[in-house]
Specification:
Elements: E1 4-8, E2 14-18, E3 27-31, E4 34-36, H1 38-47, E5 57-59, E6 65-67, E7 79-80, E8 86-91, E9 94-99, E10 108-111, H2 123-128
Parallel strand pairs: 7-10
Antiparallel strand pairs: 1-2, 2-10, 3-9, 4-6, 5-6, 8-9
């Protein structure tokens, strides 16, 4: 039985939504894509016509990246929230998305992107990664604390 669907999101572009109630601790998806070096991911982003601040990259602990834009799946459409209902768990070269609280039918699934940038964090960069989650404790950016 399918538990999720990708459709238009009020937060940003597309999002992942629950087709039924989902319990805490449920494994939802694996984040799929092509495994690439950080340097290759940077070059791909610079060559692409992607809008500023929008990628399907998921950084791994060893510095490599899963590029969900290449051979990715529905997980690439997970939007950011400062009050997420899912979390990413890395197991070697794989990343799994698991619920961290109950999710009601029709609700959007979110993770906290905790984005990290190289170099100085300016007001312009913070604005480029503005958060639209509308959570009560929204920190205003998708960048990590």
């Amino acid at each position: 039985m399918r538990r999720i669907v990708v459709r238009s999101s009020p937060v940003h572009g597309r999002g992942v939504f629950a087709l039924a109630n989902i319990k805490t601790g449920t494994l939802i998806l694996e984040y799929k894509g092509t495994l690439v070096s950080w340097r290759r991911a940077q070059r791909a982003y610079e060559r692409s016509a992607a809008e500023w601040g929008h990628t399907f990259f998921f950084g791994l602990d060893d510095g490599r990246v899963i590029d969900g834009g290449q051979r990715g799946n529905s997980a690439r459409w997970l939007n950011h929230s400062c009050f997420p209902n899912c979390e990413a768990e890395q197991a070697g070269e794989r990343v799994f998305i698991r619920t961290i609280r109950p999710i009601g039918k029709g609700s959007e699934l979110y993770i906290d992107y905790q984005l990290q940038i190289e170099g100085r964090r300016t007001a312009g960069i913070t604005r480029a990664y503005v958060c639209r989650c509308r959570a009560a404790d929204c920190r205003g950016t998708m960048l990590s604390g």
